[in-house]
Amino acid sequence: MTTQARIRSGLGAAGAGSPGMVDPLLDEVIVAGGSRYRVAWFDPPFLPPLERTTQALGICVTAERQIVLVTWNGTDWSLPGGTIEPGETLEQTLAREVQEEACARVAGSSYIGCQRVDELQGGGAYYQARFWARVELDRFRAEHEMTARRLVSPEDFRAALYWGGEATAGLILERGLAIEGRAASGATAGLSDGAPGGAHNESLTR
Q1: Nearest CA among 14, 54, 2 for reference residue 166
Q2: Closest CA to 163 of 95, 96, 81, 45
């Protein structure tokens, strides 16, 4: 997997309600599985249009400040999350997928941003939402597509993540830890309760 990234600074939130009026904070081209994608990151308050959003994924942190990773093949480790089902909110999708993939319960979550993925070889464009979540672990059972779970420290997160070399991985970690710090200090404004709610079927799967 290769990446080429541009990071922009000093961007305002003007026009955050319209995808065409917001400049991304980060814009990178990646190559994955032999295909090329342009991945653009948008911070809050921008929210992706739900009808064009394919996925909700979370940097899930335990009370001991360990980050949850899952794998489907024993080699590639990623964050839990997956496809939105009809009638679900993004938060409901996150809670359901974290339960299914990581055998963990979402106690609280907060939206940290999204990425727009453009397929550069004749495909379409879609959004993927990203969250921080405080989770409580149950005993792991490989009942869905994921075969194992592991916990890593924030310092080891990017090295353990199979797409940890991408610039968006750094943004997810940075923003997730910022909310984790506020949650640990008792500043819980903006956090939502986890609500019980799949297969990954996006072209670019994380």
Answers
A1: 2
A2: 81
Query: Is-contact 103 83, C-beta < 8 A?
Result: no
pTM (2 d.p.): 0.82
Tokens representing residue 150 in the block: 């592991």
Give a three-class secondary structure readout of the chain.
CEEEEEECCCCCCCCCCCHHHCCCCEEEEEEECCEEEEEEEECCCCCCCHHHEEEEEEEEECCCCCEEEEECCCCCEECCEEECCCCCCHHHHHHHHHHHHHCEEEEEEEEEEEEEEEECCCCCEEEEEEEEEEEEECCCCCCCCCCEEEEECHHHHHHHECCCCCHHHHHHHHHHHHHHHHHHCCCCCCCECCCCCCCCCCCCCC
* Structure tokens given for 37: 């994608």
Give the pLDDT confidence of 122-159 residue by residue, as tens digits. 889 999 999 999 999 999 999 899 999 999 999 999 99
Query: How far apart are alpha carbons 123 and 140 in whole angstroms?
Result: 36
Q: Is a pLDDT exceeding 50 seen at residue 9?
A: no
